[in-house]
Amino acid sequence: MKKTFKKIASQLHLWLGVSSGLVVFIVALTGSILVFEDELEPVIFPKFHVVEAPKDQPGLPLESLRAVVASAYPDLRIARIAIEPLADRTVIFGLVEGKKEKDIFSVAVNPYTAQITDARRENESFFHIVLQLHRYLCLEDTGKAITGIATIMFIVIMITGLVLWWPKRRQARQRLTIKWDAKFKRLNWDLHAVFGFFVLPFTFLIASTGLVWSYKWVNDMIYLTFDGRPQQKREAPSNIGLINASSTGTLAQVTAETNRLLPHPGRIQFTLPESDSLSITVSKVNENASVANVVDFLYFDRHDGHLIGKRLYDDESTGMKVRRLVFPIHTGSIWGWPTKVLALIVALITATLPVTGVIIWVGRRFKKEKKVVRKSSTSHTVANRTEEAIS
């Protein structure tokens, strides 16, 4: 019974690994690149993100920056504004054409001179393409289905791999150490089995959280488990101010009030809806929080800038808080640099597992074919000798 179970596990591990290996390799490798996206963006694209910050000089009013962008791109609508907490960062305006919210044209502006330093289409930016490759293999819905299935297969591969790895008492030390001076075949097996074992808990967690983006039912299950009800739809509340009220200085007023109500450091993002009947949504990341992805939301009247409502992280449901943890767990950003470095190492090792696994499979197939050839050759020789003896 035990041997039959291990044989089934071996076949599942083999054929699911061969079937999903390329996808797992691509997803793991692109995931390793995305781990330090926030840190690498200003380094790779300094013109877009970094400016020289003058000493003791405050930035220009946000309305002035907005006016410059609106004048430069009159055919586009400003839908988002992002303000980084660091003084040497640009203010980034997200522009759209009509209602095409997914096709963002980003414009970076120097907050001290109002000069447009750079612009790009987000769909064509490096990290966006890497993300599309990571989640959808750049194949949209088809790729989403492929990566979702491959992730489920990989979870089964990890479980069956643990079954196959599990050692007898005398083999425990061998299964936990790599024999670096061994021949290639043994070394490759050790790299696959030992590294696979040590990263398994982390890879299992990353793969499981990744299913949230592949399957809506996984996302819904989080809310049903912790809140007892599906995810509630969130929309910006309606404006209650006078439509003809003066909007001069509104953004500056909103920024000041946001920093007063939420004094912690963090990235601020304005979402400006197309409809005049909806309020401005302002989100601010809490960089002082014990975990990443803690965000508070404030809603302001777009005509006179007064506060309409709040949606603070502390008041969110348990389901929403758990859902917010999914992204930092998946990316390794949950506790900052230590977990990011760990996630990078895990992702790189995970990318090697399909490679070492295929090498093991090819080696075994070659060995079997060699045995068959030898048996065939031996049988042929015996037959010839028998014929000679008879004659």
TrEMBL record:
The chain crosses the membrane at residues 12-36, 145-166, 187-213, 341-362. The keyword Glycoprotein does not apply. Keywords: Membrane, Transmembrane, Transmembrane helix. It comes from the Bacteria. The keyword Membrane applies. PANTHER family: BLL7967 PROTEIN, IRON-REGULATED INNER MEMBRANE PROTEIN-RELATED. This is PepSY-associated TM helix domain-containing protein.
